From TrEMBL:
Residue ranges constituting the S-adenosylmethionine-dependent methyltransferase Rv2258c-like winged HTH domain according to the UniProt record: 22-91
InterPro entries: Methyltranfer_dom, SAM-binding_MTase, SAM-dependent_MTases_sf, WH-like_DNA-bd_sf, WH_DNA-bd_sf, WHD_Rv2258c
Gene3D superfamilies to which the protein is assigned, alphabetical: Vaccinia Virus protein VP39, Winged helix-like DNA-binding domain superfamily/Winged helix DNA-binding domain
Residue ranges of every copy of the Methyltransferase domain listed in the record: 172-288
Protein name: Uncharacterized protein
Annotated PANTHER family: METHYLTRANSFERASE DOMAIN-CONTAINING PROTEIN, METHYLTRANSFERASE TYPE 11
Length: 356
């Protein structure tokens, strides 16, 4: 037994345990508006924070002490707590692309899923996205929507779509567009608002996500966006689409091959498929060095692998199962002949333009 290694590992495990506890406390701070109550107000007493947030001072004080212990809030002595400008951006600015408070959204509900996951390990059958949302309790749709909304609203149309040659002109002229696995529909609604001449369609398998898609379209007042349940029929395989997008969902599919074939048949001969899917290096050795390896593998066990194995014979790629060469082969099996990785820098995802 190597005592040094034992000590290092026990520190690592304690760090993981503390991380889980701190996550819960960040969730509380976000949920109860505590970070927002402190944002931009300089040093405050716990009484001032409590009064600003409309909460009981004694509990707020203890929460502030914890925040100071972690270093998210700075303790300045004399009972004064300060949320720095930097912490404010990360924890209190909802629409800022750098904001991280949204990662903690619905944490208790998502954590509760852990009680169901042992069944997957025993049976080999994963929990589908639709089952995850059973009873509307897991909050994954809301979590993903809050997590990704700023990116869709501030980056997709502005920086990603122009990377596909001629696409913006096509969308301005009027094209038929599909987003498969569209989640809460934010991408569809954002594109529909930006390109009123085009006709947008989203396909989803999770009923609660579809409800949210329709709410988002109504709230935005768009009339050129329609949402469909894949179980009522998938993409029409009639060559009528000019552009199909899949955001972070090819690896989630039980049969990505069926998806690729359906997309191939749905596109016209000049059409394009934009794939946004997690970056994988192809070997475990290299994947372990990815900056988001821990997040990715955890998300895989708890979500993406679950989805990909939720039917008998499911491909079960998991988050890191489709590195660029495997993705290219997948598209070629469906009939596509052009595959290009886009030069877009993203912490988690790779971008591909695929054409017939
Ligand atoms: C990681 S989420 C991404 C959602 C959305 N594209 C976004 O970026 O917010 C994957 C989505 O794929 C959907 N999905 C999984 N299998 C599907 C299938 N066979 N057909 C359509 N959607 C599917 C899930 O319900 C889930 O909403």
């Amino acid at each position: 037994m190597n005592q040094k290694k034992l000590g290092e590992l026990s520190k690592k495990i304690m760090g993981a345990y503390e991380g889980a506890l701190v996550s819960g406390m960040v969730y509380l701070g976000d949920e109860m508006g505590l970070y927002r109550a402190m944002d931009g107000r300089g040093p405050m007493t716990s009484g001032e924070v409590a009064s600003q947030a409309g909460l009981h001072e004694r509990f707020v004080h203890e929460w502030l002490c914890l925040q100071a212990a972690v270093g998210l809030v700075e303790y300045e002595g004399d009972g004064m707590f300060h949320l720095s400008a930097e912490a404010g951006v990360l924890l209190a600015h909802e629409d800022d692309l750098r904001s991280m408070a949204r990662w903690f959204d619905n944490l208790p509900q998502r954590t509760a899923l852990l009680s169901e996951i042992p069944r997957s390990f025993k049976t080999g059958v994963g929990i589908s996205w639709a089952d995850t949302e059973r009873g509307g309790t897991s909050g994954r749709v809301q979590w993903m929507e809050r997590l990704l909304r700023p990116w869709y609203e501030q980056v997709l149309v502005q920086s990603v779509l122009p990377e596909l040659d001629g696409l913006i002109d096509d969308l301005n002229d009027g094209a038929r567009v599909a987003d498969v696995g569209c989640g809460s529909g934010v991408a569809v609604v954002t594109m529909a608002e930006a390109f009123p001449q085009s006709d947008f369609h989203g396909w989803e398998i999770a009923p609660l996500a579809l409800d949210r898609c329709r709410e988002n379209a109504i709230q935005a007042g768009v009339t050129n966006a329609t949402f469909h349940d894949v179980r009522d029929g998938g993409l029409p395989e009639d060559g009528s689409f000019s552009f199909v997008a899949t955001f972070d969902c090819v690896h989630d599919m039980t049969s990505p091959d069926d998806l690729a074939t359906a997309i191939y048949k749905s596109l016209n001969s000049e059409g394009r498929w934009l794939i946004v899917d997690p970056t994988s290096k192809g070997s475990l050795e290299e994947n372990l060095k990815l900056p988001l390896a821990v997040f990715g593998y955890a998300a895989s066990v708890a979500g993406c692998l679950q989805s990909g194995m939720s039917e008998s014979g499911g491909a079960g790629h998991g988050v890191f199962g489709l590195p660029a060469p495997a993705m290219q082969q997948l598209t070629e099996r469906a009939g596509f002949s052009q595959f290009r990785q886009l030069d877009i820098d993203h912490a988690m995802n790779s971008y591909y333009e695929v054409r017939p």
